[in-house]
Amino acid sequence: MSQVNSYNSRLIYILMFLVAFFWGVAWPVGRILATDLLDYPYSVMFFRYLFAVPVLFGWLWFKEGNVVPLRRDYNYLLLLAFTSVFLYQFGYMFGMQKTAASDASLIIGFNPVSVSILSVLILSHTLTRNGMIGIFLSFVGVVLIFLASPNTDIDFSDRLIGNAYIMFGAFAYAIYVVAMRRYVLLVREDPLSSLATISWVSLIGCFMFVPFVINEAPWDREWNTQEWFLIAYLGVLSTALCYVFFAMGVETIGANKAASFINVVPIFGILSSWLWIGEELGYVQLVSFILIYFGVRLVNQQPSEVIKNSEELADTDV
User: Which residues span the domain enclosing 276?
Assistant: First the structure.
């Protein structure tokens, strides 16, 4: 029995390594698609989730059967879809049109800090001294990559705009994380699992792109095999399978160990951008990574959140 557990643990660590790798490589992939398909950003976003949704619902059906949200869940699902799918992808695609993929992979690491700041406003999250130091270190790391990126072949003003889009996407995703935590705290009876939530959120978010896709009229363009392959990579590997692998990791080795693999995503993002699309490597990226990494570690040591007003727990029809 211990041999089976050991095998399963080794397999999970391999899968978690693949999650970090696939998420890291998604940055140069996004850069290629965003710059090659300047007139079709929403189509790329839509097709990405068109690839992801069947995989997610297939795994959901395998694990949990036919899961249909309750009426109480739909307001949350709409908010989660709008922030984690529509707004995040908006920041990702338009940011990738302007800035370097390696820079963006570092900036997105600021996301847990955004979550912590929002948690102070929405949940009863108290920042400790270490938490405030962590926010400061991470902020300095982000400012450093904004101002001193080695990717000087991209115009400075374009990098600033692109980085701002990436920060916007990170903030939108932080809203998603905090809203999801609020849902977990409020809904005590038959809440949706994380797998069911991400599946339905992905489906709803996919439909949000439709009006913009119609405006772009992608059917008037001949899409080549490489473009479909890269979009499928983002949808199947970077979105659907990575979520499934990450969920398996949380179940097997725990949330903290699983989350630790996310910290190395920028390393894969920087290296793959350097090797694949010829972006620059520099000491600034190393310093920025160290600042953000240790800042996030300090922020993640904060106590768990609870809803500020305990009476809200009685009102779960949201």
Answer: 2-314
Q: How does the average pLDDT of the chain come out, rounded?
A: 88
Say if CB 69 and CB 200 are below 8 A apart: yes
Q: How many residues does the chain have?
A: 318
Contact 173, 83 (CB under 8 A): yes
Please name which of 226, 238, 233, 227 lies closest in space to residue 22, comparing C-alpha atoms.
238
**Residue whose structure tokens are 């500020």:** 308
The 10s digit of each residue's pLDDT in 240-282 is: 999 888 888 877 877 667 777 888 899 999 999 999 999 999 9
In the chain, how many domains are there?
1
**What pLDDT is recorded for position 192?**
92
pLDDT tens sequence across 22-81: 999 999 999 999 999 999 999 999 999 999 999 999 999 999 999 999 999 999 999 999
Give the tens place of pLDDT for each residue, 123-178.
666 778 888 898 899 999 999 999 999 999 999 999 999 999 999 999 998 899 88
φ/ψ of 37, rounded to 5, equals -120, 55
Read off the amino acid at residue 46. Answer: F
Place of tokens 């059967």: 65
